[in-house]
Amino acid sequence: MSFKVFISYSSKDEMRISPFLETLKLITGLNYYFFKETKEIAQSTHADILTNIKDSDAFLIFHSVNSLKSSYTQNEIGAAIGLGKQVIVAKLDKTKPAGMLKGMNYLDFYNKEMFHAEIDKLISWIRSKIAERQVLQPTAGKEGFDWVNFLLLVGIIAGSVYLISKAAKKG
Fold first, then answer.
1. Please, which pLDDT band fits residue 42 given cuts at 50, 70 and 90?
2. Which of 37, 38, 84, 118 could hold 11 in an S-S bridge, CB 3.0 to 4.6 Å?
């Protein structure tokens, strides 16, 4: 099962975030959703956005002066926080997170000296979440870790150890 991230950003920052999206495409086990603005925004678009926020495991906001001014981005942030999603803030410029993001830790993609380290942090965090999902997901077969058979095996081993230790005490 994949790890799903909803990506929120201002359409004015689309060119700035495209390199990040290209990097995220390379992460196996990651699915992400972002809304690409068109000239017409239908009512179904709002429902689609909300559904994708609900279905996501995490919410990544590319924060900038533009996203701060965007009512769409602010509504997405409110929905994510209201739904209890883990919010990751990635700063694209010197604008400090405000409103619902005020006081949250953030990745500083604006700081050129820290840029590569911050990207590495994000990628490492995503990969750790994917790994957790693969280990903790109770599935069968080759799709993931088979908890039922694992626990059965642990029970058999524990029973065998008990019987052997009991036999050793008698002998």
1. low
2. 37
The pLDDT, as a whole number, for residue 90 is: 96
Q: Are 59 and 88 in contact (CB under 8 A)?
A: yes
Domain coverage including residue 148: 138-171
Instruction: Identify the bridge partners of residue 108 per DSSP, sorted by sequence position.
Output: 91
Backbone φ, ψ for residue 138 (5° rounding): -75, 100
Nearest by Cα to 123 from 23, 3, 1 = 23
- Count structural domains, the chain: 2
| 17 shares a domain with 33 | yes
Residue 32, H or E segment: strand 30-33
Residue 130 has a CB neighbour count (10 Å cut-off) of 18
pLDDT tens, 146-158? 665 566 565 666 6
**pLDDT exceeds 70 at position 139:** no
Look at 167 and 92; give whichever has higher pLDDT.
92
